[in-house]
Amino acid sequence: MNYSGVLSRYGNLLDLPEHTTPITLLEGDTPLIPVPRLAEDFGGGFELFVKYEGLNPTGSFKDRGMTAAISEAVGRQVKAVICASTGNTAASAAAYAARSGLRSIVLIPQGKVATGKLAGAVAYGAQVVQIQGSFDDALSLVVEITQKHPLALVNSLNPYRLEGQKTAAFEICDTLGSAPDWLCLPVGNAGNITAYWMGFQQYNTIKKTGLPRVLGVQARGAAPLVLGHPVENPETIATAIRIGKPARGEGALQAAEQSGGRIIAVSDEEILSMQRRLAGEGIWVEPASAAGLAGLQTEIQAGKLDPKKNRIVAVCTGHGLKDPDIITRQMATPTILPPKIEMLEEVILN
Ligand code: AN7
After folding, report:
1. What is the CATH T-level fold of the domain 62-158, as seen in this structure?
2. Which pTM value belongs to this model?
3. In the chain, which ranges are E strands?
4. Mean pLDDT of residues grouped by 10 in the chain (350 residues)?
5. Ligand 1 center to residue 144 CA distance, Å?
6. With respect to CATH, is domain 6-59+161-324 assigned 3.40.50.1100?
7. Domain residues of the chain, as ranges?
8. Is any atom of ligand 1 closer than 6 Å to the C-beta of 81?
9. Is the CB of 53 under 6 A from ligand 1?
């Protein structure tokens, strides 16, 4: 049997302390799905792939970093872990804490976490606290309380989170045989973009896989890295990236600059439209996860990014099941029929 999560597969490339005690749910090894029709929609002449991170154990990419952070915390006999979260980190922390028998506490912005994420955190047994404020307020509290009390912080300020998350870059290179020309992905607290850039650089050093240009995409109402200053009251339908003061902002700006890429913003309409377009390929992602592709499309259409002959990877960070309300709120109630064949014929054949 193959019991292999990202620590066992790539552990020798991760900078984790000796005391790390592997706790895994067999995360990672997610598919890199070709989406040729989408590439045609964008003008064609290039290869486009979706790295579908929604297929991790708790439905988001956060599991890669969480296996590392929780494994390290367990190894130094921590009793409880804590994080601030827009939802996915909370669910992931709760699951890995449960797996290892640790207590977990998660702070979320009141009323701004999608149903599937909150339900996950509760199901895995976390103590959930709603903060009357934003994610950024919750993160400040977490930083402060972990300085006063022996609780392990498992937000991406924790360096081991990045060590785990960079394995996604390794997987992309292993599948393609080299780095893609462009990597596009959503940016919130900016841990993921920072980790990808670390991973691509490390692989290029040891395996000469080359480097991608990185296109980070924020939501227009929560785009501190595009504006160049924090956003006090971030707003976007993509609640996962409703973040005004990204803790890893420096890393994101470096990834963009060093790679010859950039950080841009897209509107909520563009995000939702790309979410529908992807579902039309059979890939249902949560809104934030469509931001990377929405950004790629706007750049190509504006003539700012020439994709010709390129290989482009878009990271889709979370599963659509995380946020079902986005869909059900707008949908017409499905047709209701008595169990009669004539009526069914009438409805589906005419
Ligand atoms: C689906 O869970 O910040 O730029 O607290 O859930 O590394 O923050 C989630 C972020 C993209 C942005 N896509 O990643 C949290 C949280 C999805 C996400 C991001 C998040 P980062």
Report:
1. Rossmann fold (3.40.50)
2. 0.97
3. 32-34, 47-52, 80-84, 103-109, 127-131, 152-153, 182-186, 213-219, 262-266, 311-316
4. 82 97 97 98 98 98 98 97 98 98 98 97 98 97 97 97 98 98 98 98 98 98 98 97 97 98 98 98 98 98 98 98 95 95 95
5. 21
6. yes
7. 6-59+161-324, 62-158
8. no
9. no
